[in-house]
Amino acid sequence: MVVKIIVDKDKCIGCGRCYDVCPKGPLIWKRDKDKKYYAYDTKYCHNCKLCTGRCPTNAILIIKEGV
Ligand code: SF4
Ligand code: SF4
């Protein structure tokens, strides 16, 4: 599955819940220099949407591509 994960940096508070809840957390999520999270490698994402459900500020948008 090809997905695009967009994190709104203005909304992200760097809580790390996306990383913690994601079954592939260490493969997909990384923290940037501002301590905010971004999806580093989305090829491991299976679009379960656990991260979007857990994000307290609704900062994550997942778009399924090429289907
Ligand atoms: S949709 Fe699921 S697999 Fe993809 S980044 Fe979010 S929690 Fe991880
Ligand atoms: S769960 Fe949301 S607010 Fe928390 S680090 Fe991830 S994107 Fe940022």
Q: In a few lines, what is going on in this structure?
A:
With 67 residues, the chain is of the alpha+beta class. It has helices spanning 17-21, 25-28, 50-54; strands at residues 2-7, 29-31, 37-39, 60-65. The protein is built from three helices and four strands.
At CATH level 2, the architecture is 2-Layer Sandwich
For the record, the CATH class is: Alpha Beta
Rg calculated over all Cα atoms: 11 Å
Q: Total helix count?
A: 3
Q: Which ligands accompany this protein?
A: iron/sulfur cluster
**Domain unit count:** 1
The order of strands across the largest sheet is 1-4
**Distance between termini?**
8 Å
Shape: globular
Instruction: Tell me the β content.
Output: 25-35%
Structural class: alpha+beta
Q: Name the helicity range.
A: 10-25%
Q: What is the CATH fold-level name?
A: Alpha-Beta Plaits
Q: Mean pLDDT score, rounded?
A: 95
Uncertain segments? none
H-E order: EHHEEHE
* Biggest sheet statistics: 2 strands, antiparallel
Please tally the β strands and state the result: 4
Draw up the topology in text:
Layout lengths: L1 E6 L9 H5 L3 H4 E3 L5 E3 L10 H5 L5 E6 L2
Antiparallel strand pairs: 1-4, 2-3
Question: Describe it for me?
Answer:
The protein has 67 residues and is of the alpha+beta class. It has a single domain, classed as Alpha-Beta Plaits (2-Layer Sandwich), CATH 3.30.70.20. It contains three helices and four strands; from the N terminus they run βααββαβ. The model has no long low-confidence stretch (mean pLDDT 95). Bound molecules: iron/sulfur cluster (2 copies). One iron/sulfur cluster (SF4) binds next to α1.
